[in-house]
From TrEMBL:
<keyword id="KW-0223">Dioxygenase</keyword>
<keyword id="KW-0479">Metal-binding</keyword>
<dbReference type="InterPro" id="IPR008775">
    <property type="entry name" value="Phytyl_CoA_dOase-like"/>
</dbReference>
<dbReference type="Pfam" id="PF05721">
    <property type="entry name" value="PhyH"/>
</dbReference>
<keyword id="KW-0560">Oxidoreductase</keyword>
<dbReference type="GO" id="GO:0005506">
    <property type="term" value="F:iron ion binding"/>
</dbReference>
<protein>
    <submittedName>
        <fullName>Ectoine hydroxylase-related dioxygenase (Phytanoyl-CoA dioxygenase family)</fullName>
    </submittedName>
</protein>
<dbReference type="GO" id="GO:0016706">
    <property type="term" value="F:2-oxoglutarate-dependent dioxygenase activity"/>
</dbReference>
<keyword id="KW-0408">Iron</keyword>
């Protein structure tokens, strides 16, 4: 049993609860998607040419801090459909935790099976502390490194136990056309697949957390001033510039 591609938010929310992930049909226009993809490919290429690219696992590349690298990425982190579903998982006033790209390159190895909230010591509460979204910039297929996951594993509420062989748990590859967005619960066991094709698989991971969980990326220290200056209230809230109850106060209760 696994989630199906849908544009129906109710169905997506049900899949998230039951399987720990859902698959959304492309939530933006074709031209917006084309611009997003082009920007990521341009930035990734430039980082490789400049010698500053983060390369790993025999052909894979990460491109970090996307908000500093193009306004297209700002639009993707605040996509209203994705945010609505994130709120279902993470509750109100959740935060953006980080935004980066993972490119599974030809020959790239698969990643260890893990859950994204491994930073939290057990026992985990019976709900997600974080949730991720994968913007698929290419068709995701069995062979090109599509994300692999164990449907329903979020309900175990713990990370895989490698000593019990769960590092080899049975996974399925998430196949979907370019433009699809997968949203997944921070407790779900998953991994990048191995890319055995001759073409890269590009994906953007916009990662979110509950309003009281520490963000993966330190936006206060790392964001370019112009990104902060143009942020409206919604964006400031996502970045953590607004308070969550009595957390994140700049000057007492003012
Ligand atoms: O690239 C993927 O398919 C998944 C990446 C991932 O699991 C991670 O970065 O933690």
């Amino acid at each position: 049993m696994s989630a199906n591609l849908t544009s129906n938010k109710l169905k997506a929310a049900q899949d998230l609860q039951e399987f720990g992930y859902c698959l959304l049909e492309c939530p933006v226009s074709k031209s917006e998607f084309t611009q997003l993809r082009k920007r990521l490919l341009d930035v990734a290429k430039k980082e490789r040419e400049d010698g500053g690219a983060f390369l790993y696992d025999g052909g894979n590349q990460r491109v970090f801090s996307l908000l500093n690298k193009g306004e297209e990425f700002e639009r993707s982190v605040r996509d209203p459909v994705v945010l609505e579903l994130m709120e279902e998982v993470l509750g109100f006033n959740f935060l953006l935790s980080s935004t980066h790209a993972n490119i599974a390159g030809p020959g790239g190895a698969s990643m260890n099976i893990h859950a994204d909230q491994t930073f939290a010591r057990p026992p985990w509460p019976p709900y997600a502390l974080v949730a991720n979204s994968m913007w698929m910039l290419d068709d995701f297929t069995e062979d090109n490194g599509a994300t692999r996951l164990v449907p329903g594993s979020h309900l175990l509420c713990r990370q895989p136990d490698y000593d019990r062989g769960e590092g080899d748990a049975r996974t399925i590859a998430v196949h979907a056309p370019a433009g699809s967005v997968m949203i997944f619960d921070g407790r779900l066991w998953h991994q990048t697949g191995a890319n055995v094709t001759d073409r890269p698989r590009h994906g953007i991971l916009n990662y979110y957390c509950r309003g009281y969980v520490r963000q993966q990326q330190n936006f206060f220290a790392g964001l370019k001033p112009e990104v902060v200056e143009r942020a409206d209230e919604r964006m400031r809230r996502l970045l953590g510039f607004e308070n969550y109850f009595a957390l994140g106060l700049a000057d007492g209760l003012e």
